[in-house]
Amino acid sequence: MRIKTCLLTATAIACFSSPALAAPGDPIVIEEGWTLDLQANTRLRYETVSQDNAAGDADALTLRGRLGAELAHMGFKVLVEGEGTAALIDDYNDTQPGNGVEPFSVVADPENMELNRIQVSYSDEGFTGTLGRQRVIMGNARFVGNVGWRQNEQTFDAARLQVGTGPFKADAVWAISQRTIFGVDSPNEYFDGNFVFLNAGVDLDVVDVTAFSYIVDYDTRDAFSSQTFGATASAAVPLGAASLDLSATYATQADAGSNPVDYSADFISLTVGTTIAGFNLSANYEELGSDDGVAAFQTPMATLHAFQGWADLFLTTPATGVRDYNVGLRKQFSLPGVGNVTAAVIYHDFDSDFGGIDYGSEWDASLGFKVGPVGLLLKYANYDANAFAVDTEKFWLQAEYSF
């Protein structure tokens, strides 16, 4: 604990107080044609969780640090990056079974020290290939992402090929291991298997269309093995001085590999947005369908925190599915002495897809701005269970700096 804390504190001090050591985006020239890009990130976050159950209120102050170096030569790059998290206040359930009874609500940021990424890549015009432990974000991360909200990032041991020419784009990933957010001391540190992610689309003047396929075949996590096929279309329709932003996604999912349940379920997402007087308004309907209550559409590799409420009550889809009706209001404005500030308020109403169950509702709000090079974020979530789960209230205060 003490060693981890000292290392991470040193990283934080270096990042927050010494940005002049390496200007952002300015790699070091070793010799002609060779560069070395030193990268660092530190994030200090205070998180509280209060739930209407027997678990005690959680208080977590965690410090996450990343240090990396990328050597580049003639389109080739080699990146090595370490990541660690220390708990400065640890009155929370960190999900680690070896830590005994922790009578608090969950904050899924365990203490951890690991090799986050180690990869080799090559890029040429319209082409990038990457091999090794890497960050993978497909589309908007609804099905495959890096779970960037948590302190320990999700990565994959994978081979990736990305190509693009004119309006056409394609992205193909074959992975053999999902390196989760739960850390090296957890039995859920990683899940091996055979995973294939495919995106291909065309970006036209009128509409952007992407077809996708996600094949998830776990070695041991059989209940989450699945095959998903679908497509997304988005368009911006002129509306006077503004525009109407439209997006629609449909997908179908069935069991795959050794999944013991024979099921089929649909995914639907419909979004309408516009900007009026500087306010961004959005309305969304998202459905993770159920096969008559037997099993539901699952997204075990997604960046789940970004969807269905920040309180994270639906990280695993209930067998009866989820229907999420949500509206959001966002605004950017300037404050003297602070600069640009981004504020957001979102309301969710949740129902089941099967069985007519009222899952409750949730209010989310956030405020983000910068003080010099340091990004600050205040964030709040309040879930009203309506007898489905438990009332949950969460608050975050976060500071982050990168170079």
Précis, in short:
The protein has 403 residues and is mainly beta. The chain has one helix spanning 2-17, and strands spanning 28-31, 34-51, 58-73, 76-91, 112-124, 127-134, 155-165, 168-179, 190-203, 208-218, 226-239, 242-255, 264-276, 279-288, 322-335, 339-351, 358-371, 374-384, 392-402.
The CATH superfamily name is: Porin
Low-pLDDT stretches are: 1-7, 9-15, 17-23
SS elements, strand count: 19
Shape descriptor reads: globular
Domain Alginate export: 36-175
Protein name: Alginate export domain-containing protein
Keywords: Signal
Signal peptide: 1-22
Write a structural description.
Pfam families: Alginate_exp (PF13372). It is a single chain. This protein has one helix and 19 strands. The longest helix is centred in the first third of the chain and has 16 residues. The chain is mainly beta. Helices cover 4% and strands 59% of the residues. It has a single domain, classed as Porin (Beta Barrel), CATH 2.40.160. 33% of the residues are buried.
